[in-house]
Amino acid sequence: MPDKLDILFINPGEPNQIYQGLSDEFCAFEPPVFSGLFATYARQKGASVAIVDAPAIGLRAPQVAEVATKIFDPTLIVISVYGFQPSASTQNMTSAGTIARLIKEANPRARVLMTGTHLAALPERSMREEAVDFVCDREGPVTIWRTLEVLRAGRDDFSTVPSLWWRQDGRIVKPRESEVLLDDLDREMPGIPWDLLPMDRYRSHNWHAFDHIDDRAPYAAIHTTLGCPYRCSFCCINAPFGKPSYRMWSPEAVVKEIDFLVAKYGIKNIKFVDEMFVLNKRHVLGICDLLIERNYDLNIWAYARVDTVQDQFLDKLRKAGFRWLAIGIESASDMVRDGAQKKYGQEEISDTVRRVQNAGIHVLGNFIFGLPDDSHERMQQTLDMAIDLNCEFTNFYCAMAYPGSALYTMAEQSGVALPAKWHHYSQHGYEMLPLANKHCSAAEIVKFRDEAWQTFFTGARYHSLVERKFGPKVLAHIQRMTKTPLRRKLLEDRLVTA
Fold it and tell me: What is the mean pLDDT of residues 102-107?
């Protein structure tokens, strides 16, 4: 390894800013999968790399800047801005921007590159607003490596680097060409360099470990695919890829990484980060068959759609160690779901949830309030559906116009108010601002969401299910969670002006 570190990857984030009091006991601490994947790519090219995972080790922005400039002082600093929900990159931009600014104040010669979903959606704006030298407007690994090559050579012309926005004589220079997406993921980006991460700091979501609530660690998160072939209006997941796409690691490569995690760290709790895992038959069943052969005692969760959950998957998913499927239901209203590009009916939703549960797999139901065609009546119908389905856990979100999504474009064109600061995009943040629509104000939507959350999680029917399936300890955990309220500036301001 050379004396000077080539690339330092930084995972930004301020858990209390994003989750408020829920960060203390209830939320997950997940490994930074994209920082890890990009580090693997660079390492295979011969670069020396390190990762600073700020949320996991409890570093605030000034401490991160000090570590970056005084301890590592690398040739290139890469701040990789992704969220642990597929569309949650933007909410971490406030932290990322602060870290970049403090790094530049501590060492103006430091070279800082940002990459991530938000940056791919708003590259030029990010170059104008953030204290960075470079922004990547696509996936990242090739752009990062090629940028390092130019810096190593001592050159100051980055025009040959694909997907790289950079500065020349005080002006912003856009890339001449786009980064070509990697197509041989097994060879070029084979998993995450776990040796660079603080593996003792990660823990699963609370619900993920309801079967063993005191054993949320050790924990790992991995990708088995990249991208998504769908075009949901509220989602920005495909911004780094330039289009809807779907690339897969082979089942053998995925299970090889799981083999390592089990053998080295005793991992049981695993998240498949893929935006849509339950989709490709050969991929899903190939992974299941290999895991069934090993007979590990795993607790895996993954994303699925109502219209991708086939009966032929369920038995093998359960035997392979999949204990949870997160299903995007979104709304009880056919009109609202159609606007979100999800064209299936309530009977199909209910049937899918029951089939998954009957196979012995728990369901995490995801619902969104305030999509463009939503109204008070339709939001109530969605809450009623959630109560009727009574999934083992439920997420209630507000529609948010994430940069890179169709909703963001629509909001800009129509003049709908957008959050003033990037962390105001956090679903659980104090200053969050959801997307208003023609039927409901932003305040009405967040008020409905928060009251719906309390209604569901304090309901007798849900409590009965939790106690029956998971026991009194988990029920007590749920009750503590409902006593950790989220403060909302939007609602406090509304009370003051009422």
Answer: 98
